[in-house]
Design a protein that fits this description.
Elements (H helix, E strand, L loop, with lengths): L1 E5 L5 H6 L4 H4 L7 E6 L13 E5 L2 H5 L4 E5 L3 H5 L15 E2 L1 H12 L3 H8 L5 H6 L6 H9 L9 E5 L9 E7 L18 E4 L5 H8 L8
Parallel strand pairs: 7-8
Antiparallel strand pairs: 1-2, 1-3, 2-6, 3-7, 4-5, 4-6
């Protein structure tokens, strides 16, 4: 399961899903890069009100090899900006993985039993997953995955450039605050209408996501 939190201020992926107004589609994320999670987005800190969540299948990553920049465990920005104190901030690029190495990490995940997979998707410590990663990532990363309480220490993320492609078959659901009905609605969506879920923004988008699905039926 691949997920991405997005807002209307950084609508690159939304412009590929909805027929947005020109002033929105011209806006691009800083640096032309987009970041995606394997599993749930981080819940701490909570997503801001107005967040939109796009949930995708593994086919999205497989078809975008040419747009792939790097993958990482843990949260690469968290290392860079000093939020993960067990790793030196200047070493953030050392934890980046190429496409083939990142796929090896995902294959390790797929080999886990379902309960351990759920722990990884929820960014909870998994000794089984860490054992499989021993020869794939730095020891300090594994130590942090087991001991650091921050979800960022267990974030499995990847970065694509803005030229990525997304199709109907890649999308599982798009969660949109109901206050955006006039902008993001089923009439201007290029995907199947049942894949759009409006939620009350008084709740976080992650709460809306958990209320709508049984994660036990999801896979990467």
């Amino acid at each position: 399961m691949i997920s991405k939190i997005v807002t209307l201020s950084r609508p690159t992926i939304l412009a590929k899903i909805f027929a947005l107004k020109c002033n929105l589609t011209r806006t691009r994320s800083r640096g032309g890069h987009e970041f995606f999670d394997i599993g749930f987005p981080m819940s701490a800190p909570f997503s801001p009100v107005g967040s939109i969540l796009v949930v995708m299948k593994s086919s999205f990553l497989e078809k975008n090899r040419q747009s792939f920049q790097w993958g990482s465990i843990p949260d690469n920005g968290g290392v860079k900006y000093g939020f993960l104190s067990h790793l030196p901030s200047k070493s953030y690029k050392d934890y980046r993985l190429g496409y083939d190495d990142f796929l090896e990490v995902l294959r390790s995940f797929v080999s886990l039993d379902r309960e351990e997979q759920l722990r990884v998707l929820r960014k909870q410590p998994s000794e089984h997953f860490c054992r499989l990663l021993q020869h794939k990532v730095h020891k300090q990363v594994i130590d942090g995955m087991l001991a650091n309480p921050a979800e960022a220490a267990r974030r499995v993320e990847f970065c694509l450039n803005s030229g990525f492609e997304v199709a109907e078959g890649d999308i599982v659901r798009v969660f949109v605050p109901n206050t955006y009905n006039a902008i993001l609605n089923r009439d201007n969506m290029v995907l199947s209408k049942e894949k759009l879920v409006h939620y009350n923004p008084r709740y976080t988008v992650i709460q809306a996501m958990m209320a709508s699905f049984d994660i036990r039926n999801w896979s990467v």
